[in-house]
Amino acid sequence: MEAEQQNDILLKANNLHTWFDLRQWGFLRIGSVRAVDGVDFELARGEAVAFVGESGCGKSTLARTLLGLHRPTSGDVTFDGQELSTLKGEARQQYLASVGYVQQDPFGALPPFMDVRRLLSEPLIIHGVKDRDTREKRIRQVLEEVRLTQVDEILPKFPHMLSGGQQQRVVIARALLLEPSMLIADEPVSMLDASVRVEILNLLRNIQKQRSLTLAFITHDLSTVRHYADRIFVMYAGRIVEQAPVEKLLDSPQHPYTQSLLAAIADVDADNALEERDVPSGEPPSLLKPPQGCRFHPRCPKAIAGTCDVKDPPFFEPQTGHFSACWLHDEAHRG
Amino acid sequence: MTQSADTLLQVSDLTLHYRTRRGTARAVDGVSFDLRRNEALVVLGESGSGKSSLAKALMRLLPRNIERFSGQVMLGDMDIMQLGDEAFRKQVQWNRMALVMQAAMNALNPVVRVGEQVAEPLRVHRGWSKDRAMERVAETFRKVGVSTDFLQRYPFELSGGMRQRVVLAMALVTEPDVVILDEPTSALDVLTQASIMNVLKRIKREEGTSFILITHDVATSSELADRVALMYAGQIVEISDARDFFHYPAHPYSQMLMDSVPRLHQAEAPGYIPGEPPDLIDPPTGCRFADRCPSRFSKCSQDPPAFSPDERRRVRCWLHEDEVARGS
Ligand SMILES: Nc1ncnc2c1ncn2[C@@H]1O[C@H](COP(=O)(O)OP(=O)(O)OP(=O)(O)O)[C@@H](O)[C@H]1O
Ligand SMILES: Nc1ncnc2c1ncn2[C@@H]1O[C@H](COP(=O)(O)OP(=O)(O)O)[C@@H](O)[C@H]1O
Ligand code: SF4
Ligand code: SF4
Ligand SMILES: [Mg+2]
Ligand SMILES: [Mg+2]
């Protein structure tokens, strides 16, 4: 049983830190931006998870660290039992092929001077698919998979001739070309119109299910996760503060930060205009010098003086399978 | 539409066409609506439907490649379309109507302190003294929730949320009757968005300001709207009270749009609208939504006029023709 479970884990982040040096005049180090600052999680094979958090909390940095585009400052990522930092040459290429990346900005993701055929051929060539017909066949396959069914019309087009939704489908097609076992999608729809968003999210979710892919879906919008992920990780200031299956997290959020996020949004109703929302004051802290103790304490309406501003809260498990890093769950602090 | 004593702005058949290499782009194509005092009208619509062009047409902030700019815009009992440019700037732009442009928070002058930038319309267009202007600016900063310590800061020293409040202050500082906001929160986080919407709600309540809020996001629209106008391919296809629009949308496009809104606690997944909006250069004759409309029928090859199934509602769809006939 134990071993079987181990086998099911595709990716694991252990105490992951990715810091960026902040320099003045190009050389004087004046500090570090702790974009990812102590993150642990495991993703099972075939599981879809969402990372949710405000802009600047480290989501994209985490994504790029998982992709091996940033070297972690400390901690490590294991993929399929292998530590990422130890992969070299061929093995590293192999890894890059097994993780598809849909980056945040579809408009910047596609090289403007390549038509769709060329930009989809490139990764195949790089990964050694030498036969032209094999490439063409593979390209047609993925384009159909992302529902760009007018393949002959799409192939000769340049990115600027495509709508935002079509561009994003091409980006997804490119991520699927090399038959990855995992997909990292960084805010795949935030730049798109509301009317296309659902269509793209459905597409991603269906592909994920059909291919049993592991999907890490990054978003700043809690209202879009319900149908597109199995589990949610809520991030704040470089850390994960709460994690739980989607329904549990949305229906009974445990961490005060998650509670604020959910209080700030409401299902569409004309009455929304009548009442002001409860919004915690202030803004997320500087990652150069994050506050001591719980990073949310300067804004937290429930902060416990003498505790929250001193000690970092560990994860508690207030309900089975539902984790929250907050002192309120500690027996010692329950009133 | 019936004009009541409360009507502040009455727009009829407003049209703004651009000249482009491929032909005429009908970005705003015969738009009519009215805005009451202390009312918030939300203009919803997908990208390219003409929302920003509508805002620019109302404020006469036009690019050069104009093919056609026409219609009537009554502000009180003055048709501002008839004013010369100089009179328009004096009487309307820096006075009774203000616009926060899309992405304005990224267009602040990087080398001028924000307090001075906000004071500019008062200093330049009203000739106020520096002290008098700065006093008003400080007051406006307080209203939008920016500490007066920030008056002396430069834009890069402020977060996105704070810069958005600063551009809002810039629009409010002249105490206009109508404030037009083009996507004021789209680039911001959920919590920042919510606090900016709180500021707008408070200003609407306390100052009696009227708003035209432009957004593509239905959830955001519900945070301020008294009424909703939905744009599609340069035209308003439905205009209704917010309650009706959100709960009983009338136009097939409105219905599909409302179905596509994700809901936090809803078990079914949201729907979506297959297809894409038409090109504004040579849009289809007949109903512009016909390609994507599940209710399309023979009549839809003719352009539907705006029908009023009841006096608070206008719907540009043939399905509502009978209702009108029955109603009257
Ligand atoms: N100066 C211009 N010259 C030519 N065409 C223009 C010009 N400005 C806008 N357009 C076109 O007019 C149409 C409407 O554009 P507009 O910016 O008003 O849309 P929008 O609804 O504000 O979109 P978004 O949600 O992306 O801001 C688009 O097809 C656009 O490409
Ligand atoms: N290459 C980089 N160099 C320096 N700082 C960076 C770099 N990439 C991101 N950061 C900083 O790290 C923090 C987290 O950024 P990011 O991971 O992009 O967050 P998110 O995707 O959640 O918005 C921010 O303060 C950002 O400015
Ligand atoms: S640990 Fe304290 S400050 Fe942090 S979220 Fe919990 S109650 Fe608030
Ligand atoms: S007029 Fe016809 S095509 Fe247009 S929205 Fe109504 S039913 Fe659909
Ligand atoms: Mg990001
Ligand atoms: Mg716009």
UniProtKB/TrEMBL annotation, chain A:
Keyword annotations from UniProtKB, A to Z: ATP-binding, Nucleotide-binding, Transport
Cited CDD domains: ABC_NikE_OppD_transporters
UniProt cross-references to PROSITE patterns, sorted A to Z: ABC_TRANSPORTER_1, ABC_TRANSPORTER_2
Record-given protein name: Peptide/nickel transport system ATP-binding protein
SMART domains, per the entry: AAA
Domain ABC transporter: 11-262
GO biological process, one term: peptide transport
Xref: NCBIfam families: oligo_HPY (TIGR01727)
InterPro entries given in the database record: AAA+_ATPase, ABC_transp_ATP-bind, ABC_transporter-like_ATP-bd, ABC_transporter-like_CS, Oligopep_ABC_C, P-loop_NTPase
Pfam families: ABC_tran, oligo_HPY
Organism placement in taxonomy: Bacteria, Pseudomonadati, Pseudomonadota, Gammaproteobacteria, Halospina
Any one GO molecular-function label of the UniProt entry: ATP binding
UniProtKB/TrEMBL annotation, chain B:
Record key words, sorted: ATP-binding, Nucleotide-binding, Transport
Source organism, top-level taxon: Bacteria
Stored Pfam families: ABC_tran, oligo_HPY
CDD domains: ABC_NikE_OppD_transporters
Transmembrane intervals: none
InterPro entries: AAA+_ATPase, ABC_transporter-like_ATP-bd, ABC_transporter-like_CS, Oligopep_ABC_C, P-loop_NTPase, Sigma_54_int_dom_ATP-bd_1
One BP term from GO: transmembrane transport
GO function terms (MF aspect): ATP binding; ATP hydrolysis activity
ABC transporter domain boundaries: 9-258
PANTHER family hit by this protein: MALTOSE ABC TRANSPORTER, ATP-BINDING PROTEIN (PTHR43067:SF3), OLIGOPEPTIDE/DIPEPTIDE ABC TRANSPORTER, ATPASE SUBUNIT (PTHR43067)
Name used for this protein in its record: Peptide/nickel transport system ATP-binding protein
Organism: Halospina denitrificans
